[in-house]
Known about the structure:
Pfam families: Methyltransf_12 (PF08242). The protein is α/β, with parallel strands linked by helices.
Amino acid sequence: MADDYRVLNRANWDERAAMHVAAPEYRVSRFLAEPDFLSDVVRFDLPLLGDVRGLRGVHLQCHIGTDTISLARLGANMTGLDFSAASLAQARKLAEQTQSDVDFVEADVYEAVSALGAERFDLVFTGIGALCWLPSVERWARTVAGLLRPGGRLFLREGHPMLWTIDETVTDRSTLGYPYFETSEPMVFSDDTTYVETGGSIEQTTTHEWNHGLGEVVSALLANGMTITGLTEHRSVPWNALPGRMTCDEHGEWRMIEHPERLPLSYTLRARKN
Length: 274
């Protein structure tokens, strides 16, 4: 496959970076004002994440670094990796402003081992909304295993593949509009908005995305020498994934208004390298 998806997606994320820093959902002002403030995402993760003090961690697809800095505030020695130079510029600025000792490295996620070194990390953290930008979950799993030392662990929270199949433009019922399983060709979208409140629109609108079934994710990790230690499905997701059918709780998590028991919205997967 040609790397056109990287060029298109990088341009889109470069444009999002400054918009997301200004968006209330990322709570940058609270990071600056409160030395112990954690992102909503990491705060949600805490019960399953466990103690990360002293761990050498890498956050893949770290974007503007709010989750990476949150993990550092919990005591991990963090590196953030992303392919968007504009996102990393914002991440480094926030780390400097908050006096956070975090390294940020510019590289594509599939090139993480060559960029950072093999078997150097105790923890690989992948935040929500990351895997959909990658065409091959097997290659991602190989990267995760390559980064971890033996006994090191993966923590992944992701949008549920069932949620990704729902056509969000149909607002009166749940309609399957997109693939559940990984496909060779991407889903192509054109959208001048992003998933948070902003004061403008995106000019680089075209993105390429993929879904990855839950079995595909698990199988890819098992095939690359990982042992699954936990799999939890959640009834919430940290963005308004289905407008008009969701409500936001006090923790920034969005839930279905009607029949929340019918659709898993996100999942947390934990694994350890053999």
